[in-house]
Specification:
heterodimer; A: 432 residues; alpha/beta; eight-stranded mixed β-sheet; two-stranded antiparallel sheet; B: four-stranded mixed β-sheet; globular
Chain lengths: 432, 780
């Protein structure tokens, strides 16, 4: 019961419907929203967030401490990269040859070591909810961009991050801005739920169904002025286009990619997710989350990293190189991060625990200066000694790169005005 | 230290100099009554600016001036007092920033040298006097005209008068903030000039300091309507609805047909689609009173209990705790079962509310304790969301804003909030893991709980000692300790009931939101006083919260919107109807079936959803039935019923319907997609009415729906096998989905299509089209 608020729907509807009516494409719209006509070279049409859920060990990847004692240093040696003076963990040989295309931030830092609270914090840029009550950046991007193309503006591959409960949600922005979950592209016979059918329709049947729909459904002709009906008709049309037009099916047709390239990304869920992210961005999706979970190595960390780091190494380096080769990095911001780093000292179960004060993040594209290292941690990798960068700074920079004013005021359903972000700054050091 | 001391000295000296200013100026400019209103009117302390929690660029004011004493300190003393230039008031940062004479992020708020700027400089010249205890306090404001009728495009200037405790009346129009509650109908300029933009009725809200009043503006349609169209009325609801429509000259749509009525009534009363047979029987029934008889039959259906227990579960947030849950699915089911038994027994809303609010003991024996487990959780009651949830569920009002600052749209202050919270200061949960037994609600403080536990342990110890003929000295010591503990328990029981207001540190005793007060005898459960106030027949918010929910449930749009945002400044769209419905509900003894019966029998409820040229713009006066998407559970059950293939919910036997599922945590892609309530708060907005792209993709293309439609055990397969007559199959398809037989031209096109392809396949496509139609997915 209690479920219709016509005014609310009207506003949302006008947002969605109005866009195409005004002939505005997304980049045009976002550009027109840029504040004060400011000319900047860091402009992204899309963002790919590679989320390393659970918290990547920075010691064993991008912030090695070869001179520390063994209980801190860990098992891995370091290898030099193609950026002078920059060494990374030995399980990242391909990334080592890609570091000249990314900007490494070694000073990610905050103070919350609870998976859910920290995840909502880093995904939204706002602190204070364990339950995803602040809308994730992707949902904000969807809210601000509307639905400019055939594909939804916010996608999650395979799905949103989740620990005990799901995060990365649209929260008070409403269900319309939730991520579109596309499933695991590494599965045999990969299909997207509700987009590709088990039994594809023949052209004849598809047409027959559309004509039948017109025949039986006369409600819209008899009822005017009802926003839910208008929204239903509009999304029905869009859903039909998505399934029948071929554009969406093509976006998800990862098997059309060259075998060699697919192998370069790695025939893993992570690798193929990265590849699919590129396909979606190419087709105008504004925000893609590639969700890679399982980095929460409290015990037997070497077993875990021996298995997971090579997949990450292969997939992420392929993504950066492929995007670079196709010129997509020009207007796509790629970002890899988890919710925190891990403890310097190896624990009794041969693991590392949650560690909020220090973490490594990677940025690439959309004007980010490549081959740079920003920030540093102390000799044990426990504390940031230089330029601490907080979740709100990261979110600020991501939203800003999309042309969204991070201080813009939104309204919760009960009418409370809230800024998208109440904190944070533009990470200018990424650009200049 | 040295510098701050010298600062104080300078300040004191400045204050001395300022004393020399003529006394009348000092008296005239009051911080509370002049300065704060200026800062409020021009948006300085608004939520988007310096009024937000983190302030703006290092300057933080209380939101809309709810804490003048803090603001005074901030303005005069913070930032080394550099905001004030006592020697040259015009040069003060406070004035020059606001006038944008020096760069200001917020631009120009005040006209340089204007009336508002003058107030600030006068106040600075007077030595920045702070809030005084002896100055006149604002009692209320009046807006005139409080109601008016305007033609489309007409203008009207509102005037606002403030009335103070010393009898003073001041014209504060220029310091008042105006807001239109529907900017599509009314436009209001910052000056209070109203313009009617569209036909209808709406209100303008006028806020000055912590007072809010409204002015109603009515703009009737220009075209006269045949008065006979308002003549047919079934009951008292129609009197008020049609009077309103007549006053606004909005034409009502005609009565809906019988097929529409049985579908609409079944979906709304029992959350269940009528079967093809039920529709046929109803259509062939010649009794002129068949609609009324149907309504009574629906009330007796078992699905009525399922469906209303679901609604109550939403209001009372029956779910597992989001973290560290102590009840488990078992506890959620127990509370659901309890709600079912209340619905089945016809328990009044008053009695149900009383049982929930006074619940105590173990949640194993008293399932309603679950309400407190979810809303109090792991916190102390006075730190938790329990007060917010109680206000929203039982009073249909949102007081959460006032936890941190005065409510911007209502008279509730932070003090009101904590007075209200105080009612729950004796609720203590003794949380236990499920394997250790049921979590208990104890009436008393945590301190009392701890003392009682110790006392219990000591008594057990003593008993053991005595049984074992223990050491006399030890027995003696134990007896003394027991006596001491018993005295402490008694004291703790009698300690005053109060909570601390975090901003002022004041201890606040329980007091209802209307500030009426009843002393609570020491040791009593303060919640009893709350319940007495809540369920007093004169408390229109308690009855109104339920009446409005029921009205919205059946008529799509609440008399007040949002449905659980009742407040003086958000009046019902039809006040006489509001009064009548509340009166009916109270005099029936808070019997929800009585209100449902009135609504469902009204002509208003039975109007067609079809709009007319003259009424399609109306979305709040009920000129036609406002079609709405079926809710998640109802839609899923409707699909299962039409296809004849039930949904399997994890942990429940096959055949349990979506409206019967007690726990919103049960995994279901469909229910989540279509926006079931997660019951995180008591807000009705938890249940999402959104129409989204993935929903439409799911209806059109999901394997799940496709499997259901073409299942060999499903209804379509059965009817195709049993019926060779295409016409009969087509009739059945239409009846079992959209509840009517096809129109001739529809039948003809289907027959035509059947010639073009495989019978089974074409019929499957017809079925698909019907399930994807709005006639199916909407209640209309």
């Amino acid at each position: 019961m209690f479920d219709l608020h016509l005014n609310e729907n009207r506003r949302s509807f006008l947002r969605v419907g109005g866009l195409s009516a005004m002939g505005l494409s997304l980049p045009t719209l976002l550009r027109s929203q840029a504040r004060g006509g400011e000319q900047r070279n860091h402009r992204a049409k899309s963002v790919i967030l590679v989320y390393l859920g659970g918290g990547l060990s920075h010691h064993d990847s991008f912030d090695p401490k070869p001179d520390a004692s063994e209980e801190i240093r860990g098992k891995y040696h370091t290898i030099s990269s193609n950026v002078t003076g920059l060494a990374v963990g030995e399980l990242l040989p391909m990334m080592a040859q890609t570091m000249d295309k990314v900007c490494l931030v070694r000073s990610g830092s905050h103070n919350n070591d609870h998976h859910e609270t920290a995840t909502n914090w880093v995904m939204s840029g706002r602190f204070g909810s364990a339950f995803g009550d602040w809308p994730a950046m992707g949902a904000v991007a969807a809210h601000e961009s509307g639905f400019p193309g055939t594909l939804p503006p916010y996608a999650a591959i395979p799905r949103n991050p989740s620990f005990t409960w799901e995060l990365g949600k649209s929260a008070f922005l409403g269900g319309r801005y939730e991520s579109f979950k596309v499933g695991d592209p590494n599965q045999d016979g990969y299909r997207v739920r509700d987009v590709s059918q088990a039994e594809p329709l023949t052209e004849l049947r598809a047409q027959r169904r559309q004509s039948l729909l017109k025949t039986v459904d006369g409600l819209a002709e008899r009822v005017e002025g009802n926003d839910q009906i208008k929204a239903f008709d509009q999304f029905q049309q869009r859903a039909t286009e998505m399934v029948l037009s071929g554009e969406a099916r093509d976006a998800f047709a990862i098997d059309k990619e060259d075998e060699k390239l697919r192998n370069r990304y790695g025939r893993t869920t992570f690798g193929q997710s990265c590849l699919l992210a590129r396909r979606l961005v190419e087709r105008g999706v504004t925000f893609v989350t590639v969700n890679s979970g399982g980095w929460d190595h409290h015990a037997k960390i070497w077993d875990g990293l021996d298995r997971m780091l090579p997949d990450f190494d292969r997939g992420f380096s392929a993504l950066i190189e492929d995007m670079h080769g196709r010129g997509l990095l020009h207007d796509t911001l790629v970002l890899a991060m988890g919710e925190f780093g891990r403890t310097p000292k190896i624990n009794k179960d041969v693991g590392r625990d949650h560690w909020a004060p220090a973490a490594s993040l990677l940025f690439a594209g959309a004007g980010v200066v490549p081959g740079r290292v920003i920030g540093a941690t102390d000799k044990d990798g426990g504390q940031v000694t230089e330029n601490p960068i907080h979740p709100a700074d990261v979110a600020y920079t991501v939203l800003d790169s999309l042309g969204i004013d991070p201080r813009k005021q939104l309204h919760t359903p009960d009418g409370r005005p809230v800024e998208i972000l109440d904190d944070g700054r533009l990470l200018e050091e990424l650009y200049a | 230290m040295t510098s701050s001391l010298s600062r104080i000295t300078v300040l004191m000296c400045l204050a001395c100099i300022c004393m020399a200013i003529p006394a009348d100026a000092a008296e005239q400019t009051s911080f509370i009554n002049d300065v704060v209103p200026v800062l409020t009117r021009f948006g300085c302390n608004s939520g988007g600016c310096h009024g937000k929690l983190s302030g703006q660029n290092g300057f933080r004011l209380s939101l809309r001036g709810y804490a003048p004493e803090l603001d005074h300190a901030t303005i005069t003393r913070e930032a080394l007092g550099r905001r004030i230039n006592a020697a040259s008031p015009d040069e003060s940062l406070l004035v020059r920033k606001a006038a944008n004479l020096i760069p200001h992020g917020g631009g120009q708020r005040l006209e340089p040298g204007g009336k508002a700027a003058q107030i600030l400089t006068d106040w600075i010249a007077a030595g920045t006097p702070g809030p005084r205890t002896d100055e006149a306090t604002l009692l209320r404001i009046e807006v005139s005209p409080s109601s008016s009728t305007l033609a489309n495009g007409d203008l009207n200037q509102l005037a606002v008068t403030a009335i103070y405790s010393d009898g003073q009346r001041r014209d504060v129009t220029w310091l008042t903030q105006f807001a239109s509650s529907d900017s599509g109908i009314l436009d209001v300029a910052p000056s209070g000039l109203v313009k009617a933009l569209r036909n209808g009725e709406s209100v303008v809200r006028a806020s000055f300091r912590d007072q809010v009043e409204i002015a109603t503006v009515t703009t009737p349609y220009a075209e006269p309507v045949d008065p006979r169209l308002y003549a047919e009325r079934n009951n008292v609801i129609d009197e008020h609805v049609f009077n309103k429509l007549a006053a606004l000259r909005i034409e009502p749509s005609p009565l809906c047909d019988d097929a529409t009525f049985i579908r609409r009534a079944s979906l709304d009363a029992i959350g269940t689609l009528p079967t093809a047979a039920e529709v046929r029987d109803f259509l062939s029934d010649a009794d002129p009173h068949k609609r009324t008889r149907l309504i009574e039959r629906l009330f007796e259906r078992p699905e009525f209990v399922d469906f209303w227990a679901l609604q109550l579960g939403d209001i009372l947030q029956n779910r597992k705790e989001r973290d560290h849950d102590v009840r488990g699915a078992k506890g959620v089911r127990a509370m659901h079962q309890w709600l079912r038994s209340q619905v089945a027994a016809g328990t009044s809303w008053r009695d149900m509310a009383t049982s929930v609010l006074l619940a105590k003991g173990s949640c194993d024996q008293e399932p309603a304790v679950g309400f407190y487990i979810v809303t109090v959780g792991e916190k102390d009651a006075d730190q938790s969301e329990v007060a917010d949830s109680v206000a929203q569920a039982f009073l249909g009002t949102r007081i959460g804003c006032a936890r941190c600052h005065n409510h911007p749209l209502e008279k509730y202050t932070q003090d009101d909030y904590y007075h209200f919270v105080s009612f729950f200061s004796r609720v203590t949960l003794d949380r236990k893991k499920p394997e250790e037994g049921g979590t208990e609600l104890i009436v008393g403080t945590r301190h009392l709980l701890n003392l009682q536990r110790e006392l219990q342990n000591k008594r057990a110890e003593l008993q053991t000692l005595q049984q074992q003929n223990g050491d006399a000295q030890k027995v003696d010591e134990a007896e003394k300790r027991i006596a001491d503990l018993a005295r402490q328990v008694d004291e703790a029981r009698k300690s005053p009931v109060e909570v601390s207001q975090p901003r002022t540190g004041q201890r606040l005793a329980p007091q209802p939101l209307d500030r009426s007060r009843d002393a609570i005898p020491p040791g009593d459960d303060p919640r009893q006083t709350l319940v007495n106030w809540l369920t007093d027949p004169r408390n229109e918010q308690f009855s109104g919260a339920m009446v409005n929910r029921l009205w919205k449930h059946f008529l799509s749009v609440g008399l007040v919107e949002p449905v659980d945002d009742l407040r003086a400044t958000n009046p019902p769209s039809n006040r006489p109807l509001w009064k009548t419905l509340n009166g009916e509900f109270v005099s029936s003894g808070y019997d929800v079936r009585h209100v449902m019966r009135l609504i469902m029998n009204s002509r208003t409820y039975q109007l067609a959803a079809d709009s007319r040229e003259s009424n399609y713009r109306d979305t709040q006066f009920y000129s036609h039935f406002y079609a709405r998407r079926l809710s998640a559970e109802v839609l899923l059950d409707a699909i299962c019923q039409s296809t004849g293939v039930p949904e399997q919910f994890t942990g429940y036997p096959l055949g349990v319907r979506a409206i019967q599922v007690p726990d919103p945590g049960v995994d279901s892609y469909f229910l989540a997609l279509f926006g079931r309530s997660e019951r995180t708060t008591a807000c009705a907005c938890e249940r999402k009415a959104d129409v989204t792209l993935p929903q439409l993709l799911h209806l059109q293309n999901s394997d799940e729906l496709y499997r259901k439609m073409k299942s060999p055990e499903g209804e379509l397969a059965k009817i195709c096998a049993a019926q060779s007559d295409d016409n009969a199959v087509i009739d059945w398809l239409f009846l079992s989905t959209i509840g009517r037989i096809p129109r001739d031209e529809q039948r003809a096109s289907v027959i035509e299509l059947l010639k073009t392809g495989d019978r089974q396949e074409v019929l499957l496509d017809v079925f698909w089209a019907l399930l994807n139609s709005k006639e199916f997915t909407f209640n209309r």
